[in-house]
């Protein structure tokens, strides 16, 4: 994972909320760790091949942690194979049956998504906590406005920030009563205002890491907008240690949107950050289709770098000066290419996309080689 962007100007910097750090497998969550990006599989967990194939696609997109549903014995039985095949920590989603939590911990899950108050007696809570301790497993408390406890709904009359916070604190106490502190908490709602208010209140009340999400956000476009507004507000305020964008879309799309949110705030850097214009009658080439082609062709690039794609010379040169590689539309089918903010050469319209892809790939390889050399040098000095 990439660290917080060191190049930010002071007026753009974000002071993150101070939280204690826990480990979810080999991924640190909270403290000064990078904000992790999560998603959830939608395959039957008992179908090992389908689940692992989906995990692979999410790993290619850069996911840090993946959650899988474990509603039955068949799922927890398959979990051991899935954990072994995955390259990222696996969170087992447990709702009500305490035995599934024990089985998942023993199968190698890095974290259990479970609400302690929903799994029965204090003795059952203790059994799950003991299993988590014995297997080095963290716990994620997941409060949701759509499934609040009946007594809280009766007390408050409806889902509200105070109800979500009280539910979270009640679940936290059940873990603390058993001297368990390796937990993170989410207070999700599909209502942006409700979720943001609940997270802000909880952030003041606890020191544990917070997992952000606007639940049931919607489809790819609508859900992206809602998630960006809700989580963007919280992240800008320094709240949030791990995120999941909940979309009615494939899990890898959730990962991509999650990274775009973090990249826009300078909180993570991964892959190509594209700066492009909305296009207008001045454009010297088809900006919309060009950007689509470039984003598809460059989706495999993991190295952080920037690319500006501007249709004309009005804003193009200024934007190109701020990016690693840039292109602005020109006349007669010839377009200006900028390297490190400086005009460098022209490219013909027909060759433009392939040419830019080669430039980006070469720049990424150069950056990676430089980072590798630097790491080798520092290792040699230390030796």
TrEMBL record:
HAMAP family in the record: IspG
PANTHER family linked: 4-HYDROXY-3-METHYLBUT-2-EN-1-YL DIPHOSPHATE SYNTHASE, 4-HYDROXY-3-METHYLBUT-2-EN-1-YL DIPHOSPHATE SYNTHASE (FERREDOXIN), CHLOROPLASTIC
Keywords from the UniProt entry: 4Fe-4S, Iron, Iron-sulfur, Isoprene biosynthesis, Metal-binding, Oxidoreductase
Residue ranges occupied by any IspG C-terminal domain in the UniProt entry: 274-361
Alphabetized NCBIfam families for the sequence: ispG_gcpE, PRK00366.1
Gene: ispG
Domain IspG TIM-barrel: start-end pairs: 19-259
Enzyme class, UniProt record, top EC level: oxidoreductase
Pathway noted in the entry: Isoprenoid biosynthesis; isopentenyl diphosphate biosynthesis via DXP pathway; isopentenyl diphosphate from 1-deoxy-D-xylulose 5-phosphate: step 5/6
Cofactor binding annotation: Binds 1 [4Fe-4S] cluster.
Pfam families: GcpE (PF04551), GcpE_C (PF26540)
EC number: 1.17.7.3
Residue sites binding [4Fe-4S] cluster per the record: 277, 280, 312, 319
Transmembrane feature ranges: none
Family from the record: Belongs to the IspG family.
Organism, as annotated: Sphingorhabdus arenilitoris
Function: Converts 2C-methyl-D-erythritol 2,4-cyclodiphosphate (ME-2,4cPP) into 1-hydroxy-2-methyl-2-(E)-butenyl 4-diphosphate.
Protein's UniProt name: 4-hydroxy-3-methylbut-2-en-1-yl diphosphate synthase (flavodoxin)
């Amino acid at each position: 994972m990439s660290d917080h962007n060191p190049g930010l100007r002071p007026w753009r910097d974000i002071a993150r909320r101070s939280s204690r750090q826990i480990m979810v497998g080999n991924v640190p969550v909270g403290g000064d760790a990078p904000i992790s990006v999560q998603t959830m599989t939608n395959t039957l967990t008992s179908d090992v091949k389908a689940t692992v194939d989906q995990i692979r696609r999410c790993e290619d997109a850069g996911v840090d942690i993946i959650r899988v549903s474990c509603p039955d014995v068949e799922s927890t039985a398959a979990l051991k194979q899935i954990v072994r095949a995955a390259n990222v920590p696996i969170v087992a989603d447990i709702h009500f049956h305490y035995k599934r939590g024990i089985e998942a911990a023993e199968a190698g899950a890095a974290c259990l998504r479970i609400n302690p108050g929903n799994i029965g007696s204090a003795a059952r809570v203790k059994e799950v906590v003991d299993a988590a301790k014995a297997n080095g497993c963290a716990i994620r408390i997941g409060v949701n406005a759509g499934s609040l406890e009946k007594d809280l709904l009766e007390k408050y009359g409806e889902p509200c920030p105070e109800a979500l916070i009280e539910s979270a604190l009640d679940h936290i106490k059940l873990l603390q009563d058993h001297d368990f502190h390796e937990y993170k908490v989410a207070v999700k709602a599909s209502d942006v205002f409700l979720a943001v208010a609940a997270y802000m209140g909880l952030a003041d009340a606890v020191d544990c890491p917070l997992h952000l999400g606007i639940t049931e956000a919607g489809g790819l476009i609508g859900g992206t907008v809602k998630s960006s507004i809700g989580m963007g507000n919280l992240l800008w305020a320094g709240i949030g240690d791990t995120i999941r964008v909940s979309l009615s879309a494939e899990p890898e799309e959730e990962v991509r949107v999650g990274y775009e949110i973090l990249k826009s705030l300078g909180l993570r850097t991964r892959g190509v950050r594209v700066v492009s214009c909305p296009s207008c009658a001045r454009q010297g080439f088809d900006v919309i289709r060009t950007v689509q082609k470039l984003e598809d062709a460059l989706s495999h690039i993991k190295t952080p770098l920037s690319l500006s794609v501007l249709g004309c010379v009005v804003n193009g040169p200024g934007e190109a000066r701020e990016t690693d590689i840039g292109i602005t539309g020109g006349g007669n089918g010839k377009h200006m290419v900028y390297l490190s903010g400086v005009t460098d050469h022209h490219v013909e319209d027909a060759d433009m996309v392939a040419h830019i892809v080669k430039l980006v790939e070469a720049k990424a390889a150069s950056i990676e080689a430089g980072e590798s050399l630097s790491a080798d040098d520092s290792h040699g000095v230390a030796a």
